[in-house]
Every structure is written in structure tokens, then in C-alpha cells.
Amino acid sequence: MSEPTNNILKRFTSLAVAIDMLVSERITLLGPASWEDRNDIAFLEAYRAKRDVRHVFAMCFTQAPETFHHWGVFAKGMEGVRVNIDKRALLTSLQGQDCFVWNDVRYLTLEQLDSLDSISVFDLPFIKRFAFRDELEFRLLCESDDANARQRDVPIDRSWIKSISASPWMPENLFLSVKAAIAALPGCDKVRFQRTTLRENSRWKRAVGRIVDESAVAEPRPRNPINLDVTLNSI
């Protein structure tokens, strides 16, 4: 039986990180310094300061269906992968450890943010601009006062990794080699490693042929749509 989609956290990352998850049975939370979204960093830094802790480490997941955006931004190139993790199992393992906080990300426009009179400190790391709303992000954080800490490793069970999907740009011969290599890793013979069909899907292409064969008739050329200016500054 397949895992319910609402119990899956999707992590777009690199093949090397996925292998580390499998071999070392861990996920690694890092600081936000390298994040692309500087607005996001500002909110996380405000949270860290208000909580008066040295570090806040994070890992971001998506709960949305895969998109070209996810692959192009978070798992670039032929060595990108998507790791599907059992959400319930992961969060249950962290219950009772006060250094961890997690939540869905809330997306606000500038107007909505400006209209807030006050905000809970625990909401700060889970607010993002409305333009990112399609990411449906879920965020896991860990606070640390260890001056020497540079990351936080979280133990996981290999069985919580429900599947790994290879990049749409990974060549077929490389995919087959990686699949065999993963299966040969200790305890990984049952890991489901597959290719995403986002860029090339046989069912989609068969449908194109069927639709054209059955319904291609001469029709008047449709009018071009009228372009309307859209203001995005408030998003």
C-alpha cells in the first residue's frame, strides 16, 4: 500500500546527501546563511535573537506536488534527487526534545505583514512572502547554544525513506548504475529508487497521439489573448 501523500515530506537535494541519509541514517540541519531568500534569513535571524540562542539550524521540505521549479532551484543538474520521508515517523522521534520546533510555512503579502499589530516569536521562522506560496513548505528547526556547532544531525531510520526520485536530467545509463549502487549499500536493497517522469512521461505522450488522432479537425485560428499589466510589487 502506498503512503498517504499528506504523510510525506519531500526533500529536494543532491545524490550525495541522499546517500548520506541512507548510509548514516541521519538528516542534517544547517544554518540559513546560504539561503537564496534574504528576507527569509532576516526572519530566522530575528527568531534566533529573540530566543537568545547562538544558532538556529533548519531543514526545509515541501508538501506540494513536484514542479519544474523544485528541480530547477533545489535539486539542480543531473545529480539532483527528491527524497520522500515519513513525516509522522520523523516528528514522533523528536517529541519531547525542546530544542526542536516545526510547522508549515505561512505565506503573506506585504500588505498582510504590515497590517499585523504583533506576532508570536514562534511564528517568525514560519513566515514567507506570498510569491513563494506554491512551495507549500514545511520547516524543521533546532536551537543550539553550542558555540562550536555548525550543524545538527538528526537520527532517522532508513525505513522512513519511502522513495528517492532521480533528476529528470540524469541519463538512463547513469540512473541504472546509481540504482544498482544504492541497492548494494548495506540495508538498502529495498530502497525504492526511481526516475521522475516530469520532463518525459510515456502516458502523457500517448495521450497526445490519441487526442490528435481522434479530434484533429480544421478549426478557425483562435484570437490571441489580450495582455494585461499585472503589478507584483505587493506580493
Structure description:
The chain is of the alpha+beta class. 30% of the residues lie in helices and 26% in strands. The chain contains 7 helices and 11 strands. The strands form 4 sheets. Strands 1-4-10-11 form a 4-stranded mixed β-sheet. Strand 6, helix 5 (110-114) and strand 7 (127-129) form a beta-alpha-beta unit. The mean pLDDT is 88.
Topology overview:
Layout: E1 8-14, H1 15-24, E2 26-30, H2 38-51, E3 55-62, H3 68-74, E4 80-86, H4 87-94, E5 100-104, E6 106-108, H5 110-114, E7 127-129, E8 137-144, E9 151-155, E10 161-166, H6 172-184, E11 193-195, H7 202-215
Parallel strand pairs: 6-7, 10-11
Antiparallel strand pairs: 1-4, 2-9, 3-8, 4-10, 5-8
State the shape. flat
Number of helices: 7
Structural class: alpha+beta
> What is the overall pLDDT average?
88
Number of strands: 11
Unreliable segments of 5+ consecutive residues: none
> How much β-strand is present in the residues?
25-35%
N-to-C CA distance:
40 Å
List the secondary-structure elements in sequence, H or E: EHEHEHEHEEHEEEEHEH
Computed over alpha carbons, the radius of gyration is 21 Å
Helical percent range? 25-40%
